[in-house]
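Following up on my earlier thread - several people asked me to post the actual chain instead of describing it. Fair enough. Here it is, all 249 residues.
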Amino acid sequence: MRTALIACAALAASAFSAAPAMAGEVPQVLVFSKTTGWRHDSIEPAVAALQAMGEREGWEIEASEDPAVLSAGLEGYDALILLSSTTNGADADSEWMDEAARDALQAHLRGGGAVVGVHAAADSHYHWPWYRQMIGAAFEMHPPGTPEGALTVVDADHPATRDLPTEFTRTDEWYWFSDFDADAVRLLITLDAGSIGEEGGDVPMAWSHEFEGGRVFYTAMGHTAESFEEPLFLDHLRGGISWALGEAD
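Reply from S.P.:
Thanks for posting it. Predicted structure:
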């Protein structure tokens, strides 16, 4: 596996205590897609797909690219979806979370909130180590193009994978990661690097973990606009959001 395995020193070891919306309340979900790095063409279709998903699932979806929304606090939201929200890794000034937004994100998770990272959410805030630990890894590189890759569900007992076949293929841009610690997260899906003509064995593609009192789900898939019309990928994403919200275990 072409991934560095290092310990996430700040990972909380205490038992998780979720804080989902109270019975009868509609979960409030913020989709945030501000970019100062690479801008993905899939963002707008993804927002539309998530809003449609919210209508079906009974989630209130709000979309924003204004960092002031984060800086003002996340007390009104049950989950934050970071949708390919890139920064420029070479420029610390490109990181759009100011001190108030960073405090708000930490308070959100420590209060039992949820974070869902989609694709390039891992290509963000390289100069904030806590963010990397929260996501579970950092984007390192990707092979050229969007080839068809072979994936394996390594944990089928999770809402993000229960409706998926054990082995399947799909087209995407495939990420390799640095600072991924397999012992610190619940690994859900891997890519066979050989299936896209690369070396490296199995590469992590989706995982979840309980982090500092909250829940974090991450999927590296979702580069293409077509992903957000694909029932299999949408089932995967829906299950991850549901788990993060504490609706399904």
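The two ends are 28 Å apart (CA to CA). That should answer part of your original question.
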